[in-house]
UniProtKB/TrEMBL annotation:
Cofactor details (free text): Divalent metal ions. Mg(2+) is the most effective.
Catalytic activity: 2-phosphoglycolate + H2O = glycolate + phosphate
Entry annotation: catalytic residues: 31 (nucleophile), 33 (proton donor)
PANTHER family: 4-NITROPHENYLPHOSPHATASE-RELATED, PHOSPHOGLYCOLATE PHOSPHATASE 2
One GO MF term attached to the UniProt entry: phosphoglycolate phosphatase activity
Cofactor(s) needed for function: Mg(2+)
SUPFAM superfamilies, A to Z: HAD-like (SSF56784)
Taxonomic superkingdom: Eukaryota
Organism: Urochloa decumbens
One record GO biological process: photorespiration
Binding sites annotated in the UniProt record for Mg(2+): 31, 33, 252
Designated name of the protein: Phosphoglycolate phosphatase
Matching Gene3D superfamilies: HAD superfamily/HAD-like
Keywords, sorted A to Z: Acetylation, Chloroplast, Hydrolase, Magnesium, Metal-binding, Phosphoprotein, Photorespiration, Plastid, Transit peptide
């Protein structure tokens, strides 16, 4: 049995299993990159699937590890793609980083150094924290000359590392020296995804590559606040009156989305729209389908296209 559902052949989500899943769930948690969109391109069938689930009275929540945008910015992206999603329905790893510091009473006199982009900076500032770093440090260079001493702000009490297309040696050294030399400085990672759908054409290095670089330089593991960490779920449960047993996590990554759901007691549904997986990579106890629209079709019938069984392009 997978999440209380009968095991379909090879884990493929059948019509009966899809109906049973929807009946047993009050809230669906959706990953975004590779599930709702790829880059700035909406995945076919998503609007119809979302509309159907809302008509059925299901709560929709969007949980993304991509820290490049804030909840406000993601709400604008949803709208630009023709989807009405409020900020309250969006949980990002950038927001999770800010909430982690807030809930753990991060000292107001301390600063946060950001290896990341505007999404992290915006969420931290909204939470009342003073930050430095971010995209503007992407233009700073280091000359490794004799007796060169790297200056840093000793009031930095936390370093947050997320996806950063402007990642460079300057940022890595600033993060390293703060974590290593500032007493009690926290090392926080938004997530450790190795790759992500930054464009619709292909995958790109994810936040995990930046986190790994900093982690290696300080010989220390970070506090991870995004999926599959349970911190994000704990905060989500405080925001909504829901039970994890009545939730389903829908995602395209086994190591983050599906593990996040399983770690927190949710049902899980793996969609193959985001990442190319071989059949033997998929645990037989996980329900899976080609995409969101294959689980809930455009004609409002709950079914999965069984023609994809055994055929993964």
């Amino acid at each position: 049995m997978a999440n209380g559902l009968p095991d379909p052949p090879r884990g493929l989500l059948t019509a009966d299993a899809a109906r049973s899943l929807v009946d047993s769930v009050d809230a669906f948690l959706f990953d975004c990159d590779g599930v709702i969109w790829k880059g700035d391109k909406l995945i076919e069938g998503v609007p119809e699937a979302m509309e159907l689930l809302r008509k059925l009275g299901k709560k929709l929540v969007f949980v993304t590890n991509n820290s490049r945008k804030s909840r406000r910015q993601y709400s604008k992206k949803f709208k630009s793609l023709g989807l009405e999603v409020t900020e309250e329905e969006i949980f990002t790893s950038s927001f999770a980083a800010a909430m982690f510091l807030k809930l753990n009473h991060f000292p107001p006199e301390k600063k946060v150094y950001v290896v990341g982009e505007d999404g992290i900076l915006e969420e931290l500032k909204l939470a009342g924290f003073e930050c430095l770093g971010g995209p503007e440090d992407g233009n700073k260079n280091i000359k490794l000359e004799a007796d060169f001493y790297f200056e840093h702000d000793i009031s930095v009490g936390a370093v947050v590392v997320g996806l950063d297309q402007y990642f460079n040696y300057y940022k890595m050294q600033y993060a390293r020296i703060c974590i290593s030399e500032n007493p009690g400085c926290l090392f926080i990672a938004t997530n450790r995804d190795p790759t992500g759908h930054m464009t619709s054409a292909q995958e790109w290095p994810g936040a995990g590559t930046m986190v790994a670089a900093v982690s290696c330089s300080v010989q220390k593991e970070p506090i991870v606040v995004g999926k599959p960490s349970s911190f994000l779920m704990d905060f989500l449960l405080k925001s909504f009156n829901l039970e994890t047993s009545r939730m389903c996590m829908v995602g395209d990554r086994l190591d983050t989305d599906i593990l996040f759901g399983q770690n927190t007691g949710c049902k899980t549904l793996l969609v193959l729209s985001g990442r190319k997986l071989l059949l033997f990579d998929i645990c037989p106890t996980i329900a899976f389908t080609r995409s969101v629209s294959h689980a809930w079709d455009c004609n409002c019938r709950l079914y999965c296209l069984t023609r994809i069984a055994g055929r993964f392009e």
